[in-house]
Amino acid sequence: MANRTPKSLGSAIRRIAVPAMAALLLPAASLAQYGTGQPVEVGEQREGPAPVRDLSGVWSRVRAPDGGFHSNATWTEEPPVLTELGQELYSQSRNSNAGGFALSETNDPVLTRCYPPGVPRVWFHPYPFEVVYTAREMIMLYEYDHIIRRVYIDGRKHPEDPVALWQGHSIGHWEDDTTFVISTVGIDERTWIDRSGYQHSDELRVTEVFRRIDNRTLLLDITMEDPKALAEPWVAETLHYRLAPPSWELSEISCSGDYLDFSSFESFLENETD
After folding, report:
1. pLDDT digits over 51-101, tens only?
2. Long-range CB pairs of 12-19, under 8 A, 24+ apart, other chains included
3. What confidence category does residue 263 fall into, taking pLDDT thresholds of 50, 70 and 90?
4. Alpha carbons 121 and 178: distance in angstroms, whole number
5. How are the residues of the chain apportioned to helix, strand and coil, as percentages rounded to the nearest 5?
């Protein structure tokens, strides 16, 4: 299928994807570069214990040290257990990330519509994210496509009938000094829950458990529950993140043209609206 990929699109993706992935595989001590900013001081991140109730900083995904399952398309080596609706939705997906379809054939909403990836799919993008705090919320800033996610930490509950949002409605709390849990509902049904085409209903609930095991290492466990589309909860393999040096500043990766040639999808979009 790869030889059917439009040349301009394929080369553009390689120009940005290969350097980005290479950077993420380097140890933290090698992360000497930074985004588009010009920091006053450049230094390395400190070794040491995890700070108390603090996830602030810029984080980049790295491979698990044990070399376990690692995929940029889906959450687990085995597929999720689907309901009849879940199977029907999946059968409609024409993904290009798991090799099923060429880029010119896909109906992936991120690629063809430039839709935000949503939760939890946002974690597949190989770009850093930053955590900052206000008194009422933890704000997650993703380098990919200017995505801003607000996680309320002021004790509020989810609304009974949440408005559908790309990133959903998120609330979070600390279970202990190094474990932070986020619950997200109200996620727009136009998003896929992974890059291989599994979809969801309006009842999707995503639980993310962040465990900061030392100053530089963050683990993320994700559980997806959807009584309409998933016959049982789908528990993702643990994701590993490394804290970037203090000098690292987020750059800008925009879906609207930095690395995608949307003319490649014009025929698909025309056919879809017929």
Report:
1. 999 999 999 999 888 877 777 899 999 999 999 999 999 999 999 877 778
2. 12/259, 12/260, 12/261, 13/259, 13/260, 15/259, 16/253, 16/258, 16/259, 17/126, 17/259
3. low
4. 24
5. 20, 25, 55
Q: Any idea what the CATH number is for the domain that residue 135 is in? A: 2.40.128.20
Strand pairing partners for 130? 58, 141
How distant is the alpha carbon of residue 43 from its chain centre?
A: 27
What is the number of structural domains in the chain? Answer: 1
Residues 221, 208: contact at Cβ < 8 Å?
A: yes
Q: Which H helix or E strand runs over 171?
A: strand 169-176
223: left (phi over 0), alpha (psi -120 to 50) or beta: beta
Examine the pLDDT at 120 and tell me if it is beyond 80. Answer: yes
51: Cβ–Cβ under 8 A, 6 or more apart, which residues?
212, 215
Average pLDDT over residues 130-153: 96
Query: What residue numbers bound the domain in which 73 lies?
Result: 2-28+53-273
pLDDT of amino acid 96: 87
- Asked if the structure places residue 86 within a domain, the reply is yes
Question: How would residue 20 be classed by pLDDT, with cut points 50, 70 and 90?
Answer: very low
The two tokens of residue 138 are 């933890």
